[in-house]
Amino acid sequence: xxxxxxxxxxxxxxxxxxxxxxxxxxxxxxxxxxxxxxxxxxxxxxxxxxxxxxxxxxxxxxxxxxxxxxxxxxxxxxxxxxxxxxxxxxxxxxxxxxxxxxxxxxxxxxxxxxxxxxxxxxxxxxxxxxxxxxxxxxxxxxxxxxxxxxxxxxxxxxxxxxxxxxxxxxxxxxxxxxxxxxxxxxxxxxxxxxxxxxxxxxxxxxxxxxxxxxxxxxxxxxxxxxxxxxxxxxxxxxxxxxxxxxxxxxxxxxxxxxxxxxxxxxxxxxxxxxxxxxxxxxxxxxxxxxxxxxxxxxxxxxxxxxxxxxxxxxxxxxxxxxxxxxxxxxxxxxxxxxxxxxxxxxxxxxxxxxxxxxxxxxxxxxxxxxxxxxxxxxxxxxxxxxxxxxxxxxxxxxxxxxxxxxxxxxxxxxxxxxxxxxxxxxxxxxxxxxxxxxx
Length: 439
Ligand code: SAJ
What we know:
By secondary structure, the protein is α/β, with parallel strands linked by helices. It is built from 15 helices and 15 strands. The strands form 3 sheets. An 8-stranded mixed beta sheet has the order 3-2-1-4-5-6-7-8, sandwiched between helices. Strands 10-9-13-14-15 form a 5-stranded parallel beta sheet, sandwiched between helices. Strands 11-12 form a two-stranded antiparallel ribbon. Strand 14, helix 15 and strand 15 form a beta-alpha-beta unit. Ligand SAJ binds next to helix 8.
């Protein structure tokens, strides 16, 4: 074992190692807080001065982090933030938590990982451990990050410095599984990398799951999220098939879910939103395409999920038609715009596609979302209606897209002429009311 490794492992065990977290978003800030709470001195680095200023003012902008917690750690000198990547030179342990979005072309955008790696390369030193947390295709850590780090350095990975991948599993707003107690998979470029990075994470996280390589860790995350995307695609197609058969898909799913083993309940909806599930699997299919292999499940699920907003609009058109109305000129109220209930996140939300398609068909569309006062998207923008029940009364049809808990479903049912319910949100009160048409 090299002396650098011995010295680093001692600092990690004594928690005297200086930890740096690159990227202070919904993954990075909670991770920085968890390491600081474990006793490490932590520096959060982010180019966004608003985030840096907020952290240094002890003011949390992440729902899962209490401002009191952040303020205490900052006051105690355990956590600070900086926009200066040169601070990496002092760091013994670095966690990279930067975004991995898709480009407009649908290809992975690795620019954030690349620039983080290039910044790190300028400050790489012996006795440093680096962990990439951003969801990406198998091979990224070895092909992209390791190359960027060693391009102009004679430091040896696994001897002088240590590099691993550990997928984030943050689910904003969830209280049962947190950054601290969530089992954390971690795999290194070499066995020594796995051991050193696991030792670091074990100082702050309850359950660390070492695996044999960065590729296994990268692929495990993609299996997790592809599993969800494909199963959501399956139930969405079941919804389309059941509608053709005149069968209530919600009753079918509830019946199937009584099976005590070998079945996991997913429910249909207006499409697949969020910054993880619709996007992460496409990193995998993109990588396999470069190896001349078509990831058919991912492509098919993505096609079905992407088509759901159009299917919803077709169902609205049919429902209006049953009342002798055309979509063109109809007054429609979309209920819920966030990508899932009880959050204010619009990213990839199917509501955006449903509203856009209804506007294309010249419907007169308004929306309501208690968490999202205004939407600006492509060539249109809308404000959430203020008087919800009055807007429902004025509408030819209400389209339930996101079933927030704090809606008064009984009042909405009473004040609506017709409801296209894509979430079975009115199940308990509609009791077969012909006003409600289900997906
Ligand atoms: N959706 C359905 N039917 C379902 C489940 C979800 O239509 O049965 C839709 C949602 O409405 C949403 C999209 O799919 O538009 C994604 O929903 P999600 O429940 O997967 O929520 P996310 O995107 O916040 O996923 C995160 C993931 N966490 C991480 O990637 C770390 C996911 O792995 C979690 O399982 C999920 O949260 C969760 O369980 O809340």
